[in-house]
């Protein structure tokens, strides 16, 4: 675009070894809360506390971290080997007892168990070098989930009186960073000199301001931000400061039909609707052309390419074809009359799509869908309640179609389990934890049950193919486009950011994957 | 002398609403500022009415180049979603004007009904109304709006109108009540009682017409507030961002960083239009002040 | 009369015209006025409402505000043209120059400033009183207008109207003016207070020897005090002569007309234009000359046989305290009377004596605190809102102020149609016929034309007639007329009074006539009741009571009546 | 006669000794107090009900946020509910618990900002809002009123039309729009002012001159926005009332007495015109506590308005209730104070 182009003007007082990151938003002030188990913790707690295993949701790769690895002697036992030579930032050694303590803490304080690991764990045993977790039932994928738990030091936390409200103002962790200066509008973290892979950490300090508007991000010399920004080339990149970006897919945005309702319970109707969708156009409308249309497989491409069933044509990508759509509708009893798609009784096919107010990309996508289906003679209304109400409607199954995200956890099993498992089934009006579309298929459930106990990767792959077939054939949801991971980075001070050429990790600034990035960067002047 | 039994001219009724309207319009028009205001408002209304004819493209017709600068095809450029800004501006005027006028009208009607009965009744019911109005006055406006908006979400402009009306009528009711109270002590009101008039008729035929200017003023004030409130709600993302109004244009402008991408028109134009529309109503109000306050109408005879 | 005439000219006005507005829309309020005033003169300026008196007063004092402007002419004060002065010079010369006491002297004080500060503001503005003497001077000035020292610390709202009027006179006096213009200094004042204030002004003028112009529409008041009188009519000064000449040898028709409306209510025989004295009439059986232009018609009125009388026994009314901390008001105190069909009763008394309250009580607008009010067999005190119609079809009210009693937005026809429809049940053409008949009855013709008019197109007297017509619309048996003529000019008064008298005589309508004007009571009523602070202090045949008052209060009321013929004669 | 509006003021209203007026006055005060308490109660109850009328619970709001990053499990929901302390018990129990909180002024823990308590949050936010919005409201009132006086006194000249028109035009812009532009130009393009926050990023609040200066610097743009957009109302209000007092007789009489124009303008015309304006000022002052949501949002200013926005969008009942209560009470109290001030300024209502 044109006229007043404000360029990035980094604050000259920020030295070259210091990184400015938009990772943590105050609202608008920061509260000094580094309790890693709290929802409202400071984001940098993720840079201080580490898990046993890091699961990268974009690549789907597992990275052994505080554990050097884990094994499943049988589908209901997980043995984590604990890394040696790791110390807490106060100098105390990190041991398997800390791991056991952390697991126990989540059991004692259920409010901390956000992943619900104690839904799978029966008991925990430790040796000097291992932590063995006995599961309540055979469940291979649970090992991964349990491994992502952040570990806290027993020697400090055991003296905490009321962990439930403990804000952990002076965090002691194993991570690459320790808390530097803390102020309500900005805090810094400093490199932990005794970090177990200190040699890999390039940034000496990280500054995290409380306010990171897009204007700030573009103009104040940020090194790393995670945010969708309109016209990224015209703004972020054009602002200078060697800015680049990488937007890998981080999940699939899909339309959830309410399968308990007619006519959405009719596969032909779903097929008709699916065939009438121009997915690329929807993705373009929603994400300004930065995201690709998603295949009807619940598999993220290109990173999960290996898991993709090769027998599915065109990688699961469905093309818009109105003629086919009308054929399917005809089989379901709908015909076009005076430009309207009507049933045998002459009533127009009419429903609403629910999306959350404020999720603007979704809204744009829904409007595009509305347009496309509308062209076929379907009366589509858009309903956009506040996020909380949207969430409630989704869980209670009180909607016709809802916009939603699926997949993107990094775990093929979990991606399909949350989408298809009958375990989550609840009648309409009661809250379902997942499987909001209420897909009820014994066949899918049987595959999932088998997946749970499969240790052999080849078997897992095969089962994954079958699940993809189900999603492809039965359309429990209509995939639309990939939800992006919006990584904005600057190569002015540090290089080695994850990118299309070097997709080693998600560009996210929160959760544990930043550890992969922070231990991968190189300072520019070192080269 | 005396009575003629034949050829009586038609019975002349009290001034019809049209006559009252014409009188009010004439008085307002006689004020220079108000004339400017009416011209601006008239222009906006024309643009809104003929938006389908004037607007080069549809309101949410997209597929053009994203965030484009102004050009022959797109005088004011395009949005980040690839929509024509000028077309959005023209279509958007429909909603903003509609919200302003309808919400202004509704809250004025409520204010009139409540304010007048409040001013006329005494005793228990006056206390009840007093209580309700006070409640609405002390309850914080914008937060209440946000809560109602959240509750009624997805209702489109209807919701916005309801929200603006619920939070906006009380002030007018209070003003109208005090005027009613001062009018009800006038002799002609007592005289109407002696003429055997029923309270309803006294309120609406004797008192109400005498407050025309105040009511008209209240209407323009409420309409201005409604237009600004709509913009505010939309901007906070609490409105219905799927419609195209000046408020949502600003919302999307902010959302797609129009300032960064250099889409000046996208931010400037709706803001200016809102301000112009609101100013036009304020200007018209100057003329209304003239009727309500004879001292402002210098040179006029009693 | 002690005249200190030294013939030194202090003010000269040449060919002065003042307009409101410009061009075609202009009102020519003052036209071609010539006048000369000598030092120490006391000049009266009379004329009906709207004749331009105030406008002239404002012009003389340089206070004309837009849209008023001096069209042409010169005003020389002390030989200097005041038009040539800059605003600041004009301001400075107000000390020792021309002072003005405004017509609405009651509202001329800043409600949020104490009286002392009003004085201080003036002293400070002109610096003619040194700081240390401010208090003494202020005390001296309030003393001159016969006010106690305590008023200095009061706020205007805490003073009565008369006190406020005196304060504004004292303030004007503090400028040590050579010329003082008093614009209706006593309108809106109670007769008794009015009398006292006028006396103060006269005394002051004698003592301080300034030149005074007294503006009034009441020839009586002016003749009592002024040596020279100017009569204004439609912006022109139509007569300028000594008081004596005006009284005995009026040249102008208008002046003569004004004079003819004065009479002493205590006189044996009282005759006003259009009225023969009641007692005479009773004696001779003569009908009074009709004041209305048409003899009233009785076509649609049947003589009522079921005439009821109003019996008021021991009625009191207590109003709650108007403000917190004040005591409650006993507005009416144990009043009893009976009003028989066809009778007319005057209710007189000073302002605030409770006259209007009695009117409200017997029309059920207010409820009595105690006592009973029976109209026929209807207990008025017990009526509820919904039952008012029944009472109001028999008892109607003629409102005091014809300006506020008519809804400015309704045509005369609408105003009159409503009671006709509500009370007589006539509809459509019948109702219209009745309305036109009513207009004819009150002498507003051509009826069709008047029916279509809006109140602002009517003169005060015409409005008052509409108000009366409305009261007649329900064929009432009783009319309460609450000061129906106090807002009208002498020239209009007679007509209205005559009309009321007609109604009573021809239709046997009984009338309660409320007024503080004893003269009019004398000509239209048979019996009289004198009220003082809510109590009836005297009652009896009107002529008898006025000629031989026994109560001291009645005597004072009678004394307060300006009588132009008193000392000039 | 003069005009139709001439009201007759009875002359004989010399104060009479009190008879039972005291009891009546007490009754009056009691009635007033009763109504005050009733309004307060109703407002409090409404504050309780309003948030609960919104569909979805605080946990849903939190979940919705998480769900944007991928699927959330049932366990997550349970954990979040446990963490936030989402209300348990039926609505009646909640109501009584809430009334208890109101009476003890202890509003518990915020959901959104768990584990911070509501009082913690409010006490950090309130000073900034009070200072920023409060000071600006007062300043706007003072400047606006003065300009209004000037405009009325010089009516018909450019001193009248300029402030009147400019003021009303400026206040016709949406608040946030003015804020955005100021922020963009003064903050980002010319880099004259900081773009967010109430003080420098590394500063810690204290009472040193340095910090106060910094705080003022940060408050400048938001203050300017509020000033620009609210000035017009005060100018117009004052101008119009003063034009009508200028026509009052005491002003003419003051001129007739040759008072200095300044005295007439200020002590006579303006002094009386300001009284009706006070009522609006009272409401505006009461609204201060609510902050200025839009402006605080745009400038990332850590005041009550921002807090309120967060509370509402996250369905944070405890925070919302406390803030609503604060706003309601402050409006009621401000009006009460203005009533008293009215009494001081206007001797007519004094006794
Ligand atoms: N502000 C004004 N604008 C236009 N016309 C006016 C104005 N004030 C007075 N007039 C007109 O000027 C004429 C003279 O008015 P003025 O007030 O001088 O009368 P007056 O003799 O003092 O009457 P009154 O006895 O009622 O006080 C009247 O016709 C009146 O209607
Ligand atoms: N509504 C009221 N509330 C309180 N006091 C009242 C009310 N109406 C009248 N009064 C008081 O009652 C007394 C009698 O008033 P009323 O109006 O009857 O006098 P009036 O004789 O008609 O006087 P005027 O000649 O001025 O019309 C006065 O002291 C007045 O102040
Ligand atoms: Mg006059
Ligand atoms: Mg009276
Ligand atoms: Ni360093």
Automatic annotation (TrEMBL), chain B:
Subcellular location: Cell membrane
Record's bilayer topology term: Multi-pass membrane protein
Gene Ontology CC entries for this record: plasma membrane
Domain ABC transmembrane type-1, chain residue ranges per copy: 97-285
Positions of transmembrane segments: 36-55, 95-116, 128-151, 157-176, 207-229, 265-288
Keyword Transmembrane helix: yes
CDD domains from the UniProt entry: TM_PBP2
Keywords, comma-separated and alphabetical: Cell membrane, Membrane, Transmembrane, Transmembrane helix, Transport
Listed GO MF terms: dipeptide transmembrane transporter activity
Domain of life: Bacteria
Keyword Transmembrane helix found: yes
Stated family: Belongs to the binding-protein-dependent transport system permease family.
Protein name per the record: Peptide/nickel transport system permease protein
Taxonomic lineage of the native organism: Bacteria, Bacillati, Actinomycetota, Actinomycetes, Micrococcales
From TrEMBL, chain C:
Coiled coil: none
Top-rank taxon, per record: Bacteria
InterPro entries listed in its UniProt record: AAA+_ATPase, ABC_transp_ATP-bind, ABC_transporter-like_ATP-bd, ABC_transporter-like_CS, Oligopep_ABC_C, P-loop_NTPase
Span list, region Disordered: 283-307
Pfam family, one: oligo_HPY
ABC transporter domain span: 11-259, 310-558
The protein, known as: Peptide/nickel transport system ATP-binding protein
Species for this entry: Conyzicola lurida
From TrEMBL, chain D:
Membrane topology per record: Multi-pass membrane protein
Cross-referenced InterPro entries: MetI-like, MetI-like_sf
Assigned protein family: Belongs to the binding-protein-dependent transport system permease family.
Residue spans crossing the bilayer: 33-50, 128-153, 165-190, 215-236, 281-299, 319-345
Subcellular location: Cell membrane; Membrane
Chain ranges of the ABC transmembrane type-1 domain: 126-338
Any one GO BP annotation for this protein: transmembrane transport
Keyword GTP-binding (UniProt): no
Keyword Transmembrane helix: yes
UniProt cross-references to SUPFAM superfamilies, sorted A to Z: MetI-like
Protein name: Peptide/nickel transport system permease protein
Keywords for the protein's UniProt record, in alphabetical order: Membrane, Transmembrane, Transmembrane helix, Transport
Pfam families: BPD_transp_1
A GO-annotated cellular component: plasma membrane
Source taxon at top rank: Bacteria
């Amino acid at each position: 675009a044109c006229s007043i182009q404000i360029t990035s003007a980094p604050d000259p007082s920020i030295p070259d070894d210091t990184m400015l990151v938009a990772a943590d938003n105050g609202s608008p002030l920061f509260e000094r809360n580094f309790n890693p188990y709290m929802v409202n913790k400071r984001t940098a707690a993720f840079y201080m506390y580490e898990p046993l295993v890091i699961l990268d949701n974009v690549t789907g790769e597992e990275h052994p971290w505080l554990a050097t690895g884990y094994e499943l002697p049988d589908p209901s036992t997980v043995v984590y080997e604990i890394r040696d030579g790791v110390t807490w930032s106060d100098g105390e050694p990190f041991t398997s007892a800390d791991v056991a303590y952390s697991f126990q803490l989540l059991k004692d304080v259920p409010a901390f168990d956000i992943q619900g690991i104690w839904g799978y764990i029966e008991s925990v045993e430790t040796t000097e070098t291992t932590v063995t977790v006995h599961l309540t039932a055979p469940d291979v994928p649970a090992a991964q989930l349990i491994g992502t738990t952040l570990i806290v030091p027993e020697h400090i936390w055991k003296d905490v009186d009321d962990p439930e409200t403990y804000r952990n103002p002076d965090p002691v962790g194993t991570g690459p960073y320790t808390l530097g200066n803390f102020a309500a509008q900005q805090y810094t973290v400093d490199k932990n000199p005794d970090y177990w892979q200190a040699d890999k950490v390039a940034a000496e300090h990280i500054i995290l301001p409380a306010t990171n508007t897009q204007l700030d991000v573009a103009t104040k010399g940020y090194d790393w931000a995670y945010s969708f920004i309109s016209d990224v080339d015209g703004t972020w990149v054009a602002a200078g400061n060697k800015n680049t970006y990488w937007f890998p897919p981080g999940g699939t945005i899909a339309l959830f039909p309410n399968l308990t309702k007619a006519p959405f319970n009719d596969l032909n109707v779903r097929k008709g609707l699916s065939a009438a969708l121009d997915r690329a156009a929807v993705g373009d409308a929603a994400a300004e052309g930065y995201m690709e249309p998603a295949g009807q497989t619940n598999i993220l491409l290109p990173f999960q390419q290996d898991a993709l069933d090769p027998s599915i044509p065109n990688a699961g990508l469905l093309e818009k074809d109105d003629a086919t759509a009308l054929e399917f509708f005809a089989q379901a009893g709908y015909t076009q009359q005076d430009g309207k798609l009507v049933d045998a009784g002459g009533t127009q096919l009419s429903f609403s799509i629910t999306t959350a107010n404020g999720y603007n990309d979704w809204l744009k996508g829904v409007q595009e869908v509305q347009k496309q289906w509308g062209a076929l003679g379907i009366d589509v209304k858009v309903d956009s309640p506040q996020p909380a109400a949207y969430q409630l409607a989704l869980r209670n199954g009180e909607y016709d179609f809802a916009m939603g995200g699926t997949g993107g956890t990094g775990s093929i099993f979990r991606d399909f389990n949350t989408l298809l498992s009958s375990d989550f089934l609840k009648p309409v009006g009661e809250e379902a934890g997942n499987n909001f579309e209420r897909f009820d298929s014994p066949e899918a459930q049987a595959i999932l049950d088998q997946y749970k106990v499969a240790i052999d990767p080849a078997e897992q792959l095969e089962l994954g193919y079958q699940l993809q077939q189900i999603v492809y054939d039965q359309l429990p949801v209509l995939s639309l486009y990939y939800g992006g991971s919006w990584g904005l980075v600057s190569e002015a001070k540090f290089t080695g950011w994850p990118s299309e050429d070097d997709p080693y990790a998600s560009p996210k600034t929160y959760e544990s994957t930043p550890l992969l990035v922070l231990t991968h960067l190189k300072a520019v002047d070192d080269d | 002398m005396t009575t003629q039994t034949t050829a009586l001219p038609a019975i002349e009724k009290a001034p019809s609403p049209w006559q009252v309207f014409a009188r009010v319009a004439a008085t307002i028009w006689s004020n220079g500022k108000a004339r400017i205001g009416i011209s601006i408002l008239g222009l906006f209304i024309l643009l809104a009415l003929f938006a389908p004819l004037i607007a080069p493209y549809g309101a949410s017709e997209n597929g053009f180049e994203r965030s484009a600068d102004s050009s022959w095809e797109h005088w004011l450029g395009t949005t980040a979603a690839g929509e024509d800004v000028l077309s959005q501006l023209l279509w958007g005027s429909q909603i903003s004007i509609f919200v302003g006028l309808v919400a202004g009208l509704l809250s004025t009607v409520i204010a009139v009904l409540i304010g007048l009965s409040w001013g006329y009744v005494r005793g228990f019911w006056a206390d009840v109304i007093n209580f309700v109005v006070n409640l609405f006055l002390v309850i914080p406006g914008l937060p209440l709006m946000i809560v109602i908006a959240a509750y009624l979400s997805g209702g489109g402009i209807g919701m916005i109108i309801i929200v603006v009306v619920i939070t906006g009528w009380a002030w007018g009711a209070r003003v109208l009540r005090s005027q009613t109270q001062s009018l009800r002590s006038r002799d002609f009101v007592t005289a109407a009682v002696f003429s055997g008039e029923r309270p309803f008729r006294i309120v609406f035929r004797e008192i109400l017409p005498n407050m025309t200017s105040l009511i008209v003023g209240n209407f323009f004030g409420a309409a201005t507030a409604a237009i600004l409130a709509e913009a505010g709600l939309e901007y906070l993302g609490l409105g219905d961002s799927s419609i195209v109004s000046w408020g949502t244009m600003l919302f999307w402008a902010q959302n797609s960083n129009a300032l960064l991408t250099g889409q000046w028109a996208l931010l400037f134009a709706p803001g200016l239009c809102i301000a112009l529309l609101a100013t036009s109503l304020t200007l018209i109000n100057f003329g209304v002040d003239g009727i309500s306050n004879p001292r402002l109408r210098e040179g006029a005879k009693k | 009369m002690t005249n200190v005439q030294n013939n030194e000219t202090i003010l000269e006005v040449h060919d002065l015209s003042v307009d409101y507005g410009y061009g075609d829309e202009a009102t020519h309020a003052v036209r071609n006025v010539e006048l000369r005033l000598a030092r120490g003169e006391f000049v009266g300026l009379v004329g009906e409402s709207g004749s331009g008196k105030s406008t002239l007063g404002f012009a003389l004092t340089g206070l004309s505000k837009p849209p008023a402007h001096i069209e042409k002419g010169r005003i020389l004060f002390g030989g200097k043209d005041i038009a040539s002065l800059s605003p600041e010079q004009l301001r400075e010369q107000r000390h020792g120059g021309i002072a003005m006491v405004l017509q609405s002297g009651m509202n001329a004080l800043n409600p949020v400033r104490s009286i002392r500060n009003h004085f201080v503001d003036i002293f400070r503005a002109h610096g003619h009183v040194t700081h240390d003497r401010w208090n003494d001077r202020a005390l001296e000035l309030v003393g001159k207008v016969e006010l106690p020292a305590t008023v200095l610390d009061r706020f205007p709202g805490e003073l009565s109207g008369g006190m406020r009027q005196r304060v504004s006179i004292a303030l004007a006096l503090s400028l040590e003016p050579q010329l003082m213009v008093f614009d209706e200094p006593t309108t809106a004042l109670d007769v008794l207070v009015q009398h006292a204030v006028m006396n103060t002004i006269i005394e002051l003028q004698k003592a301080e020897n300034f030149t005074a112009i007294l503006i009034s529409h009441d020839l009586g008041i002016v003749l009592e005090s002024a040596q020279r009188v100017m009569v204004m009519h439609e912006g022109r000064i139509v007569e300028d002569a000594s008081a004596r000449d005006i009284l005995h040898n009026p040249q102008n028709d208008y002046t003569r007309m004004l004079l003819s409306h004065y009479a002493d209510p205590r006189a044996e025989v009282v005759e006003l234009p259009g009225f023969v004295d009641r007692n005479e009439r009773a004696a001779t059986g003569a009908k009074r000359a009709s004041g209305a232009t048409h003899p009233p018609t009785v076509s649609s009125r049947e003589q009522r046989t079921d005439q009821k009388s109003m019996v008021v026994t021991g009625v009191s009314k207590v109003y709650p305290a108007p403000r917190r901390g004040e005591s409650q008001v006993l507005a009416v105190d144990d009043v009893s009377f009976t009003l028989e069909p066809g009778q007319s009763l005057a209710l007189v008394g000073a302002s605030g004596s409770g006259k209007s309250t009695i009117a409200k009580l017997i029309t059920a607008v207010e409820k009595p605190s105690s006592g009973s009010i029976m109209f026929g067999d209807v207990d008025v005190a017990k009526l509820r809102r919904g039952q008012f119609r029944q009472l109001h079809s028999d008892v109607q009210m003629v409102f005091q102020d014809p300006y506020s009693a008519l809804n400015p937005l309704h045509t005369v026809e609408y105003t009159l149609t409503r009671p006709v429809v509500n009370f007589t049940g006539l509809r459509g053409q019948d109702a219209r016929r009745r309305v036109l008949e009513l207009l004819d009855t009150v002498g507003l013709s051509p009826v069709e034309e008047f029916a279509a008019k809006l109140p602002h197109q009517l003169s005060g007297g015409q409005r008052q007639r509409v108000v009366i017509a409305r009261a007649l619309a329900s064929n009432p048996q009783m009319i309460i007329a609450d000061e129906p003529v106090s807002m009208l000019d002498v020239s209009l008064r007679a007509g209205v009074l005559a009309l009321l008298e007609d109604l009573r005589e021809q239709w046997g309508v009984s009338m309660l006539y409320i007024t503080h004007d004893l003269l009019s009571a004398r000509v239209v009523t048979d019996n009289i009741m004198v009220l003082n602070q809510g109590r009836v202090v005297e009652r009896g045949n009107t002529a008898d009571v006025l000629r031989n008052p026994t109560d001291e209060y009645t005597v004072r009321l009678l004394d307060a009546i300006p009588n132009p013929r008193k000392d000039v004669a | 006669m003069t005009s139709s509006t001439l009201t007759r003021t009875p002359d004989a209203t010399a104060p009479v000794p009190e008879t039972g007026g005291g009891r009546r006055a007490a009754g009056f005060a009691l009635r007033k107090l009763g109504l005050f308490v009733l309004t307060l109660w109703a407002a409090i109850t409404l504050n309780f009900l309003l948030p609960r009328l919104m569909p979805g619970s605080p946990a849903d709001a939190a979940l919705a946020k998480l769900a944007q990053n991928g699927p959330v499990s049932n366990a997550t929901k349970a954990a979040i509910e446990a963490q936030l302390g989402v209300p348990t018990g039926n609505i009646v129990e909640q109501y009584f618990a809430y009334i208890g909180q109101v009476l003890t002024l202890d509003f518990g823990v915020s959901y959104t900002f768990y584990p911070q308590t509501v009082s913690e949050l409010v006490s950090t936010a309130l000073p900034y809002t009070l200072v920023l919005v409060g000071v600006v409201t007062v300043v706007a009132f003072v400047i606006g009123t003065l300009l209004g006086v000037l405009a009325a006194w010089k009516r018909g000249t450019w001193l009248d039309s300029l402030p009147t028109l400019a003021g009303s035009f400026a206040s016709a812009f949406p608040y946030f729009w003015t804020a955005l532009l100021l922020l963009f130009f003064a903050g980002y393009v010319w880099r004259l002012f900081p773009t967010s926050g109430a003080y420098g990023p590394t500063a810690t609040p204290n009472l040193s001159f340095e910090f106060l200066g910094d705080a003022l610097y940060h408050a400048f743009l938001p203050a300017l926005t509020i000033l620009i957009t609210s000035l017009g109302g005060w100018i117009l209000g004052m101008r119009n009332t003063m034009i009508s007092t200028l026509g009052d007789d005491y002003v003419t009489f003051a001129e007739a007495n040759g008072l200095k124009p300044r005295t007439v303008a200020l002590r006579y015309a303006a002094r009386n015109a300001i009284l009706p304006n006070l009522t609006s000022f009272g409401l505006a002052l009461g609204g201060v506590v609510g902050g200025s949501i839009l402006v605080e949002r745009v400038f990332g200013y850590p005041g009550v308005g921002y807090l309120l926005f967060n509370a509402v969008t996250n369905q944070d009942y405890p925070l919302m209730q406390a803030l609503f209560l604060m706003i309601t009470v402050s409006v009621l109290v401000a009006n009460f104070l203005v009533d008293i001030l009215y009494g001081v300024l206007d001797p007519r209502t004094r006794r």
